[in-house]
Amino acid sequence: MSSSTINSTTPVLISGAGPTGLFAAILLTKLNIPVRLIERHLEVSPLSKALVLHARTMEIMAMSGVIERFLVEGKHLREFHIWQGGKQAAIFPVLNNKESHYNFGLFLEQLRTTALLTAELNDLGVQIDRGWELMDTKVVEEGKKSWVETTIRRAIQGTNVRSTESKVLGVVEQDAEEAGKQYETEVVRSEYLIATDGGKSVVRHKLNIAFPGRTLDNNIIIYDGHVESDIPFDCITVVNGDNGKMMVAFPLNDGQTRIIVDNGTLTPEEHMALKPEDLTLEMFTGMVQAIIGPTIKAGSFWREMPPMCTLQQVVKVKQQQQQQQQQQQQQQHKASKE
Ligand SMILES: Cc1cc2nc3c(=O)[nH]c(=O)nc-3n(C[C@H](O)[C@H](O)[C@H](O)COP(=O)(O)OP(=O)(O)OC[C@H]3O[C@@H](n4cnc5c(N)ncnc54)[C@H](O)[C@@H]3O)c2cc1C
């Protein structure tokens, strides 16, 4: 049940503190435009989706004066290694846009990108307003004046995030309140709303804005963890398996490797039937070995195994460790500021 509603104003409300929302907040703050950045999660997601920053992204970040920390922390990668089964077949230059000063791919997990952008924003004196979820928004017009009115809410205890949510264009079934939870609600009046609330944007659905394009029905499995292999996975490595399947390995920044295995095309029904517990370490190891032959030693993967993972469901991997690492880094950053 909602316990209270308050009203507030801000020149710019930004909804969603992923990389896009954070970067928008940094730019506007540097232009002395006050922002309020809300994020429904209480913590940064431990799921590292993106791994690489491309040349144009780095150029824009450089123009905005926020590239240094990224260049120091990320890996500069320029090569793509192709293997056919257990044998190296070719090496290609990759991501080396010669017209750019940044003629490499900068490898940095999204978790770190988000942490570094958050640190940049904090240095400018702005904190993310966590726990607030955008529920609804509309443009109000009165005579010659107009503004945006956005309803946000936050659970007084615990998190806002519900386990089930379904969104159909124009209809967002997010209003259900969880039994026993108390929410505070706020109506924010702003000149602008920047909707950086991700691919499933509530704002897009509420305003009935279509998302043209098509959905790929490829099923992939992602593993982030330790791998022991005779193939050196120290650069982007594509392995074309003798069984006709493909896998790609990316070095991560902490000595671990991301492995993406092509699991073929699934029907929507097959996709829906997938359960995290269906994927075991043994099964994944078997899939990799079937692609690259005996090169990877049996039992060479370790760490808790991510559940079945598709592009739609990047799942919990090394969650605790990443959270601890991030807390340590935040503490170190705070200590260095004091
Ligand atoms: C497996 C995978 C690999 C990828 N690899 C790459 C890559 O190598 N390079 C690359 O450039 N991109 C890559 N991407 C894409 C990249 O991850 C996205 O483009 C990026 O996350 C988009 O950032 P964003 O800030 O727009 O949205 P998001 O990262 O989705 O952030 C949206 C934020 O809004 C918050 N939010 C959502 N709804 C609400 C609400 N109602 N109220 C308040 N807050 C809300 C969410 O909690 C979230 O924090 C990859 C994606 C996947 C899945």
UniProtKB/TrEMBL annotation:
Residues 10-284 form the FAD-binding domain. Keywords: Coiled coil, FAD, Flavoprotein, Oxidoreductase. Residues 311-338 form a coiled coil. GO terms for molecular function: FAD binding; oxidoreductase activity, acting on paired donors, with incorporation or reduction of molecular oxygen, NAD(P)H as one donor, and incorporation of one atom of oxygen. SUPFAM superfamilies: FAD/NAD(P)-binding domain. InterPro entries: FAD-bd, FAD/NAD-bd_sf, RIFMO-like. Its cofactor is FAD. This is FAD-binding domain-containing protein.
